[in-house]
Design goal:
alpha+beta; six-stranded mixed beta sheet; rod-shaped; 18% strand; 24 helices; 24 strands
Length: 827
């Protein structure tokens, strides 16, 4: 049986059986078998009647009314044997002994026919013709011998009967001989009906009796219908269009031509028309009949084509549906109302590790673990009882372990609304359920964290409406968290400040990528009693596809503001003290009429505001002046104290007439005695009588010189190590150099705070300084203190972009060397 035969039919639907691709209705098959059995018994009955005629010597029983040729006794015996054999064969399930007896009877009939044909072929007499009765009705030469066409029919019928009872032998092996047997009988009947003696016998041989011909037609019918679901018989008995079309054609062929022939012969016998006209009428009648049958067949064929097209469309739809099911990641199945699987997809197969062939047609208990099968069946029955789709989440124990599933069950209804099947879609949502549980746990942790936060925390949407708040807002603002939900967050700000606070929040949200920020300047909160207080707000955003949330953490900084004010006041007081101390330590350089100068000192705005920069102008004699600039590394009171000591020591050493290198050596020894100190320093002696300058550098920046007849440039001099770097026993000597300095020149001395900036090259900054000196003093009277003072301002503005934000001390000294006219004036 094919799979379609094994599949149960849907409730309320009558599905035909399938065999060889053709549909069959059980009642039709039963009727065909009944007809076959009845025909076989009728043939046996005719044989018995003929046999009785021989026994009782009643010629009417052997030849029929008005007939001349009678049924032979051996023919009667063979017909009885064949009829009984076929009646047994058509029953289906029979006992082995009965089947053996039926086969023996068929073999007997075949043997009788074979021996008779042998007699005709050899001309010998085997003694079987009058074995039972003496025959004086036939030809004297062959008394008791049946007609040759009868013998051939008995041989074919016996062989076909033997084959019909063996299921391994194809049905056509018995059905086609059965048609031949029936044709031989019909040929004799046509001869009798049309009064054509030539169809009764062949030549001089014995003719076939009419009862024998009728029995052969019945036997041919029984042989053809003995296996109605197979072979050519299946083409006529199937429930499809093929069967209907075949039956119409078969009936037409069997009935219409004989009737037309009989009518034509009757007309000819009555003298209505002659033989030629009769033949023409016969042909016309056949053409008309077969034309009608042809168009009827075409109409049936059209219906077949339409049905075939619909079937192909349905097959494509079913294939699309199956493809859809197979490509669906969820488990999909269809079951009948009794729980038998009608269709499943590949995911179903993988989930149970069973091929589809082992699932279709079986129930839940046949393919699933017992507990799971009982759950599934109970769910199906509950859904059918409710009569509408049901969806639920459940935890099921599957072969791979317990999993979470989303099950959807719904009925499939026919045109009348009656359910005939159950469809289910089962989706594995284990990961999704786990993710949802993790989200819930995260939400609970978030709420716990929010409520335990020490500061007041508010969460707003993108429009500034509060959606959540923690209990701390009650302590800070005097309002319950539930009362704040749904209100605008700016309601917690004093009315006069709300516009500014709202603008700040909007500006933050308009940023392309707003990052967490802390704002504590100019922000105020409003308490329940109407008083305002300074706050610090930490703001961050949470962006998603649906909305933007803003998290505001608010802290009362009233105490912080008070402490900051006190600290700022103390710092300013200490700064004033330190500046006063540094000013007193550095002193005021003397104003020399023969050596005009301008200076700038800018204390650092970072830290205490005092540092280690200093400079000094020391008159040595009428034409010689010492100029010193230094920088103690570090900042604060300690650096200022070291600077004071170095300034006093260097001033005293210069007064003794020390050379620049000697002064540096002495200061190096002095700094070496101080712990963890390093100082850069430059000392020069300006000799206006000789128009030269002698200088020595201990790691300090170069002096900028502007001659009256050339551009500003670095004043070349060997640069030694900073003070405090040399070891006590061995040190690098400090070298001095003398350079010409014509009258009308200018000198610029400075510390690193003027040219050193983070992220810049100090050499490039010195170049900027040289260029600015050139622009500010080139061609200007360097003996004018006002000119030097303006030049100092310009240098400060150019090198320090923001004088309110520098973080190092700045010392600048600009010296002009008067020309001859100025010297004469002094003299």
């Amino acid at each position: 049986m094919t799979r379609e035969q094994q599949m149960p039919g849907l409730p309320g639907a009558h599905r035909p059986e399938q065999a060889d691709g053709l549909p069959f209705h059980a009642p039709v098959l039963g009727a065909a078998r009944t007809v076959a059995g009845t025909a076989a018994l009728a043939a046996a009955l005719l044989g018995l009647v003929g046999l009785a005629g021989w026994i009782f010597e009643a010629e009417a029983l052997t030849s029929g009314p008005g007939a001349v040729v009678s049924m032979k006794s051996n023919t009667a015996v063979a017909l009885v044997a064949l009829g009984l054999s076929l009646s047994v064969t058509t029953r289906g399930q029979i006992r082995p002994r009965t089947l053996a007896a039926a086969r023996a009877a068929a073999a007997l009939a075949a043997l009788v026919g074979t021996l008779t044909l042998a007699e005709y072929l050899t001309g010998a007499s085997l003694g079987i013709d009058e074995l039972l009765f003496q025959d004086d009705t036939g030809d004297a030469g062959t008394p008791g011998r049946m007609a040759p066409n009868t013998a051939a029919a008995l041989l074919l019928a016996g062989a076909a009967s033997l084959c019909a009872g063996v299921s391994r032998i194809p049905a056509w092996v018995s059905q086609i001989p059965g048609l031949a047997v029936g044709a031989l009988g019909m040929l004799r009947l046509y001869g009798a009906a049309y009064a054509v003696p030539e169809l009764e016998r062949f030549g001089a041989y014995t003719g076939m009796a009419v009862p024998t011909a009728l029995a052969l037609v019945l036997l041919g019918t029984a042989l053809f219908l003995a296996r109605p679901r197979e072979g050519p018989a299946g083409l006529l008995t199937n429930a499809g269009t093929t069967g209907a079309l075949g039956r119409w054609l078969f009936v037409t062929v069997v009935i219409v031509p004989p009737l037309l022939g009989w009518a034509v012969l009757a007309g000819e016998d009555a003298g209505v028309f002659g033989a030629r006209l009769g033949t023409a009428l016969l042909v016309c009648g056949l053409v008309a009949v077969f034309t009608t049958v042809t168009f009827a067949t075409l109409a049936v064929g059209r219906r077949v084509e339409v049905a075939h097209a619909r079937l192909e469309w349905q097959v494509r739809q079913n294939a699309l549906l199956q493809d859809f099911m197979d490509h669906t990641p969820a488990v999909v199945f269809i079951k009948d109302l009794h729980g038998r699987f009608l269709a499943v997809n590949t995911t179903f197969e993988r989930s149970l590790n069973l091929p589809r062939d082992q699932v279709l047609g079986r129930r839940d208990l046949d393919v699933m673990p017992s507990d799971l099968a009982r759950q599934a069946r109970a769910a199906d029955l509950a859904m059918l009882a409710e009569g509408k789709p049901v969806q639920r989440e459940e935890r099921l124990a599957v072969p791979g372990g317990p999993r979470e599933f989303l099950s959807t069950l719904f009925p499939l209804n026919d045109a009348s609304g009656t359910p005939y099947a159950v469809c289910g879609v089962v989706t594995d949502i284990t990961e999704r359920v786990a993710a949802q549980r993790e989200v819930q746990r995260s939400h609970r942790r978030f709420l716990a964290l929010l409520e335990s936060a020490p500061d007041a925390t508010l969460i707003t949407d993108g429009d500034g409406t509060v959606v959540m708040a923690n209990p701390q807002v009650n302590h800070l603002f005097g309002r319950a968290p539930g009362d704040l939900v749904g209100t605008e967050v700016v309601c917690l700000v004093p009315a006069a400040r709300r516009r500014r606070h709202g603008a700040l929040l909007d500006a933050y949200l308009r940023r392309r990528d707003p990052r967490p920020a802390v704002v504590d300047k100019g922000l105020y909160g409003l308490r329940g009693d109407g008083s305002e207080f300074p706050v610090e707000v930490s703001v961050s955003s949470l962006r998603s596809e649906q909305e933007t949330l803003v998290v505001l953490t608010v802290r009362d900084i009233t105490e912080r503001r008070r402490l900051e004010a006190e600290r700022a006041e103390r710092y300013e007081q200490q700064r004033r003290i330190a500046l006063t101390l540094q000013h007193s330590l550095m002193g005021e350089p003397p104003h020399l009429a023969y050596l005009p100068s301008a200076y700038r000192y800018l204390a650092s705005v970072q830290g205490p505001g005092v540092g280690g920069d200093w400079f000094d102008v020391i008159p040595l004699d009428e034409r010689r002046t010492g100029v010193l600039v230094g920088d103690v590394m570090g900042r604060g009171l300690e650096a200022a104290a070291v600077m004071g000591q170095l300034r006093a020591a260097s001033h005293a050493l210069a007064r003794t007439g020390a050379t620049p290198s000697g002064l540096m050596t002495a200061l190096d020894a002095f700094v070496g005695d101080l712990p963890d100190q390093m100082v850069t320093c430059l000392y020069l002696i300006l000799d206006q009588g000789r128009h030269e300058v002698t200088l020595c550098s201990a790691g300090h920046l170069p002096v900028i010189a502007l001659p009256p007849d050339g551009p500003a440039c670095r004043l070349g001099v060997p640069v030694g190590v900073p003070l405090g770097v040399n070891d006590a026993g061995y040190g690098m000597p400090f070298e001095e150099a003398t350079r010409a300095l014509p009258p009308g020149s200018a000198l610029v001395l400075y510390t690193d705070g003027l040219v050193e900036r983070p992220g810049t090259d100090i050499e490039a900054q010195i170049d900027v300084l040289i260029h600015t000196v050139d622009v500010a003093l080139k061609g200007a009277p360097v003996d004018d203190p006002g000119t030097l003072d303006r030049a100092a301002d310009r240098l400060i503005r150019t090198l320090i972009a923001d004088t309110a934000a520098y973080d190092d001390d700045v010392t600048l000294l600009v010296i002009g060397v008067p020309g001859p006219a100025a010297d004469g004036a002094d003299g």
